[in-house]
Structure formats: C-alpha cells, structure tokens
Amino acid sequence: MNSISSRLLTVLIASTGLVWLLAVIWIYASTQAEVERVLDARLMEAARMVNSLQAERRIELALADGGASPLTQLAIEDDSYERQLSCQIWSLDGRLVGRSEHAPDDRLTDAGTGFSERTVDGEAWRVYSIENPDLGVRVMVGDSRHVRDRLVGDVVKGLLIPAGLILPFLAGVIWISVRRGMSPLNGIAKAISSRAASDLSPLRNENLPREIAPAVYALNDLFSRVNEAREREKSFTAFAAHELKTPLAGLKTQAQVALASRDGAIHANALRQISAGVDRSDRLVRQLLDLSAVEASDGVLTMETGRPMKIIERVMKEMPQAPGRMKMLSRADDQDIVALFDPTLLTLALRNLVENALNHSPRDRTVTVRLAEAAGRVDIIVEDHGPGISESELPRVTERFFRGRARSSTGSGLGLAIVKEAITRMGGTLVLKNRQPHGVSALLSIPVPEAS
Amino acid sequence: MRILVVEDDPVLVDGLAAGLGLAGFTVDTVTTCEDASAALEAQTYDTVVLDLMLPDGSGLDVLSSLRRRKNATPVVLLTARDQVADRVAGLDAGADDYVGKPFDLDELAARIRAAARRGAGRASGVLEWRGVVLDPARQAASLHGGPLTLTRREFGVLRALMERPGSPVSRAALEETLYGWQEEVESNAVEVHIHKLRSKLGAGFIKTVRGLGYRLAEESP
Q1: Which of A258, A260, A342, B36 could make a disulfide contact with A270, Cβ separation 3.0–4.6 Å?
Q2: Which of residues 221-280 of A touch B (CB under 8 A)?
Q3: Which residues bind DNA (chain B) (predicted)?
Q4: By the CB < 8 Å criterion, does A283 face chain B?
Q5: What is the ipTM of this complex?
C-alpha cells in the first residue's frame, strides 16, 4: 500500500526485527564457541584428574578381574545436565577396566592422547583421552554433543523468548509514534477534503512542522492563484455577456420599433440603428477573435527579425476607416529599421491601436504614426487628437472590457487590452500618455534582435 | 407615465426611447450613474429602467443610494447576466423586477407598467372611474362600455388623474408626466388637453381645484 505511515511502520518493525535476529545469530555463534572452549577445558581437566588419581592409586582399578567393578565418582548431580561427563578407563591391551555410571559400554575413542569425536550407540561424543603407559591404561573422558548443543540452545532460547514478547510491544510503540508523527498531515488532508469546492481560502499555517510547512505554503500559493484566475474569468464572463448581449438587445428593440411604427422617420431611424448595431457587434466579435488569437499564441510565438515599417504600411492600407485620416511620418531610413517580433501579433496590436486612436479622434483630425529607434528597442508611436484619458483611468484602460467615460460609441473595451496582451507576449511594452493640449500618445516598444 | 432609462449603449438607448415612447411612456434617458442619480434627485419618475454595467460604475450602486435616500421609485433592472445569483443580488438591492438582455419590448413595457402599478399600490392594471375604463397596456379607453378615442397626451392626463382619484394633481406635475426633457411644452398645453377631455367625458368629470390643479369629480351625489 502506498501509505507513508504503513511504509514507516513496515520499515521500522522489519529493521528492529532484523537487528534482533542478527544479535541472536551473533550471540549463538559466540556462545557456541565459548561453550566448546570451556567444556573442552573441563574434559581435559577431568581426564587428567582421573589419570592422576590412578597414578597415585587413589582409585583401584579392576585390572585383574576384567572390569567388573565400575567407577562411579564422576557423575554430576544436575537435573538437566545429568550424565554430562562419561569416563572410561581401558587397558592398553583393549579391556574396559572401569567406567562411570552412565558411560556407554563401547569404547569412546581409538585415538591416543588428545581430542577426538565419535558416535557411539547413535550418540555423538567429544572425547579427551590420556594414555598412561606406566599404568598400562588409557583414560577417556567424553561429553555428549547433544548435551553441548542443548546448552547453547538454552542460552539462545533465553534470548529469543523475551525478544518474542517485546517485539509486539515494540511494534505497538512504533505504530503509535508513527500515527502521532503523521497527525499534522492527516489534519491538513481533513481540512482540505472537508471544504467546499468553491472555498479557496488559505489553510491555517501557524505551528506547522518544518517538514510540512513548504507543502502548505505551496498549496496556499496555488489556492490564491486559482482564485485570481477564477475571479478574472468570472469578470471576463460577466463583461463578455454584457458586451455581447447589449448590442443584441439594441438590435431586437430597434427591430421591434421598426415593426411597430408606421411613422416613416422612426422606421428609417430604427433601420439605421440596426445597421450601426450590426457593425459594432461585428467589430466586437473580431476583437474577441483577436484576443483569443493572442492568447492562443502562448508558447508558439514565431519571433523573427523583420522590418516593422512593412507591418505598419500593411495595417494602414487595410484600415476600413477613411484613408485620409491617417498620416505616416516617415524618414527615408525608417524602411531599414529592423526589430524582433511576431508578425501576426504585431499586426493585431497595431491594428487595434490605430483603430482605437481613430475611434477617439474627431472626424476631421488625423492620427499620426511614427517609427523611432532607441537603445535596444524600436518604438512605434501612435498619436491622436481625441479627448485623452483621465489620469485616474490611465492604469485601467488596458483591462479587458474597461471603457472609460470618454467612450466611443463603437468601442468594446477590448482594443487596448489586445494591444497590451500582444505586445507583452513579444517582450515589448505599451505606454499611454496624454498629450497637450489633448489627445493620447501610445508608445509601442518592441525589442531589437541581439548582436545586431 | 414618465420613466427614466439608464443605459449606455447608444443603439439600445435609441431603441428604448422610441419603443417605450410608442408604448405610451414619456422617456428620459441618461448614460451614466452620475447622470442617473442627478436625474432621480431632480425629478419624480413612475419607474426607472436601470442597466447594471455603466461606464462610471454599477447600476446596483445607483439603486442602493436611491433606496438609502428612502426613494421608493420602482426599478426594473436590465442585465446581460441572467443568472440566479445576479437576479438575487439585484432584487435584494431593492429592485422591483429584472429583465435579461435581449428582451422583448412588449414584455419590458408590461413589466414597467406592473412595477409602476405596484409602486402606486394598485393590484389591477386597468383603471376605472365613473364608467371610464383605461387600459394602459393597450393604450385603450372606453366610456360606459362604448369606445372612447383619446390622443396619447389626453390618455396620459386622464391616467395621471385616475391613478390618484380624489386628490388634486398640479398642472406642473401633469406637464412632467407628459413631456420629456427634450420636448417643448406650450404654456397652455395642459389646459387644452383638459378641455378636450371634458368635451369627450362630460364637463363635470374633471374638476379644477383653484391654486392646486385638477382632480376627478366624486361620484354624482
């Protein structure tokens, strides 16, 4: 499962278990080695003791009567480790001279002095033997491998049983700590899942653990950006609805007036208004398409080095307004000025800018267009003789659908927004200034190609 | 009936002035919030037709300030966003009705009449007084069941009087009801209309209240 807490739980419990297991293996190995060493030393000592007791004649050996009386003094009185040591004394000619109480009848080893191992009656033995040529006997002391293994096993068992008891407890402690550690995350998840889809208010961000704070900050940042985008979209929709539906309402009303009225003058006026209304709607639709064309250019700009003069000339030629109302103030070398721009976007920007200037200028005044070179940029300046823009409205005129008080009857509030969008995408700027005594000067700056 | 239209689209304003004029209203038009507030302070209207998006602000602000001044003039909102939330906001701000663009001219006229009627505290759209029946919706009149032909101005004068039977209506108020800002009013225009009405309805139908104006005569004793 892809859950941090269950992953943490698994990893912590597995690694704790693994540490325990390694410790047990290590203790097992070292205990085994230690037990072997100690028991071997004991075997050797016991054998020597028996040998020396014999030599000093403290024990009588039935050498003569053929081993009828066994030796019994070496048995250790211990419940579990009873019969641990077994002792046999053999004459060098192969007769069993004596043995301890539980020692097997068969010979424990054939080897001479030293350690050896052998299986007698299905039981493995470790044996130390000493040859005593003076007495003509061989003393063998052995202990059962099985008993040795049990000794080691008991030590390990003593370790494993508490471990087995402690591990579930440890798992519980780990589980609780992990849950505790994850609770801020769960709190955030709960806070997000319980809110309404429209709730984009920021998450509480005080007392956050350091590890989670960046995620919460990022989320809050995202919330605020989504909120802004939604507000923008909402107001765009509201304005678009108003700007699209109002002309329709005008058309319908005028059509109904034309149908209802028998007065020739009213009739003719209504039809003229309908015609004007259609022109305005047409322009609005074209501007909406321009705007969406500018927005669609996001990421697919085709910036190329070209002559802005060519674009200016084409835009002026295609203007449907009276051609006499525009004047190009050009010098001979303006044709050679180059800049870096997207031809489609520059055309859109320029067309809307010039159209805007024409719409706000009196019919008998001209709109002038100039081209100028400045450091690192090329300026296109469009000047009109309209009423100008009030200082309070200057910062807002490039907002979509913003129409100031000095609105023209054909405006939609989109023209300058298109200009601004298009020019910003090309890395240029639009600066609007009032002229003295009246009119607006629009400065369109576009970048020049590098290293030219 | 005199109404104020607040709308900034030139084609629509022109159409509303012409169309509502044909429907029997006296129409004044303004295009900004500022002009609307000024007009509403200077003049009493029977109904206001208010667009929501105006060049210098929202129509809702005009509406709120109108209501703050305890001005109960009926208001019909015109708006492009025909959504429930917008309608609720408009009605809660004190609007009496709500028409989404584009609208039908006849429907708008009917809603204006209805709003004005409710504003005047009447339930029926038809006015009746001593056998005279006026139907403002159809601009039609009858006298004792028979046809009665009135000019637009005569109809307006009679309607203004019948809307407040018993109480006198001044000559100035009648002029305001009949003539918009752009129209020239001849000094004796109201007297001429009253005279013609008396000749059509009987001399005793409309009484002159000296110094106050005109009122309808009570039921014959």
Answers
A1: A258
A2: 237-239, 241-254, 256-257, 260-261, 266, 269-270, 273-274, 276-277, 280
A3: 124-218
A4: no
A5: 0.73
